[in-house]
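Subject: Protein entry, chain in single-letter code together with its fold tokens

Area: Proteins and the way their chains fold up in space.

Attached in line: The record itself begins immediately under this heading.
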Amino acid sequence: MDKHGPRPYSAFSRKLPSALRRATGAALVLAGLGSACERPGPPPEEAATAPAACRLEPGADPSAWQLPSRLTEVSGLAVTPDGNLLAHGDEVGRVFEIDPGSRKVAREIRLQGTPRDDFEGIAVTPQGIVLMTSAGRLYVLGAERERDSASGTSVVEYRRLDTGLGALCELEGLAYDSRAKVLLLPCKTPRRSQDRAAVVVFRWSLESEGAAQPPRYVIPSSVVHNLFRVARFRATAAEYDRETGHVLVLSSEPAGVLELGPEGHAVRGVRFSPRYHPRAEGLALLGNQLIIGDEGASRGGHLTAYPCAP
């Protein structure tokens, strides 16, 4: 490896033509990268040729649609086994199931008692749908107690777990790694000075109700700067790709996606125009599309779908 750090790989860059920038308004920043977690990552050549979780389709326009007023402050996205989209706001324990075909809410799921909290992430796991708060509390949804067929509303039981991670970080985003069977919790605002310039993703097991091994991925500030040319990457969401085993981490500042390999090393970064994503808060892989959710008081909550290349 070059003593000044890994070099960009032109062959890798050629796979994403400049037409993508013209078509979508997305500014793409890519480079071969070094290690990214608390153990050594692969050499740069391996990282640069790793399969992409979603290589954006050159020349294809993204599609966007407005969310209902109940989701003005959309805060998290996930995908159900049958291909519907789950979305939630950030203050009340309610989840909305959206039919991606009609783009309409098919069902509303309310947690019993409608708890209020700072909900910042959602994931679908074998134990059920899980909501996460910025303080690291998990709400694991359980059995349905009531159903109103006329309004399409279900009321469900839930149990609450505390990961204890809120003492280390303000968390935002949640994903489920189905291979390792662990939850992935990105850190938006670290509380420890040594983590403040890095990107940190915690790994937590629902089965053991404790930290997984390794307990977190750490992407150094130098890697973040090489990719995005910024001092900080404010993580707001995460998604796990079952096909590649890669993890996507969304940022609101800058608006972009950091892709991690199966061992937590950084693979690539994609940067989007803030014009399209003023407050990116949710991320999901739905079929062959990358979905980003933005909240907004003036414009309202909306989703943008980017087609992935075959």
In short: The longest helix spans residues 221-228. Residues 84 and 101 are 9 Å apart (CA to CA). Helices lie at 10-13, 19-24, 44-48, 221-228.
